[in-house]
Amino acid sequence: MLITTFTDKDITIDWVHNNPVRTIPRTCLLAGTVCIISEGPKGTQTSRMDKVAEGHSVLADKDRFNKSIGRKVSLVRALKSAGYARAIRKDIWIAYLTHTKK
């Protein structure tokens, strides 16, 4: 979970990974990652935030499951559907890259 704070609101980003056992044929058609963006007034509990957008990354039949790539692809799609301004998107990416840095 990633929480980014702005002057008037908090934005929470969470990912759900679905990596089914690799069988032929694949047992689950929705293998991939889901990114959920929620926001609320500053100081709001994460459970009370409103869901703003959702982005999906879906594996093709020959793709290998990779959490890092799935998080990035689903985050791009979620930010696009949320319609945030460029400055907010930039701050979210900086927070994400700082958070995932090892």
Describe the protein.
By secondary structure, the protein is of the alpha+beta class. The chain has one domain (2-100). 30% of the residues lie in helices and 32% in strands. The chain is built from two helices and four strands, in the order ββββαα. The chain has a four-stranded antiparallel beta sheet. A hairpin with a 3-residue loop joins β1 and β2 (9-18). It is elongated and about 45 Å long. The mean pLDDT is 84.
Biggest pleated-sheet summary: 4 strands, antiparallel
Q: What is the terminal-to-terminal distance?
A: 16 Å
Q: How does the overall form come out from the CA principal axes?
A: elongated
Number of domains: 1
Low-confidence stretches: none
Question: What is the N-to-C order of secondary-structure elements (H for helix, E for strand)?
Answer: EEEEHH
| CA-based gyration radius | 15 Å
Counting helices, strands and paired strands, the structural category is alpha+beta
Number of strands: 4
Q: Order of strands in the sheet with the most strands?
A: 1-2-3-4
- Fraction of helical residues: 25-40%
Mean pLDDT: 84
Q: What portion of residues belong to β-strands?
A: 25-35%
Q: Helix segment count?
A: 2
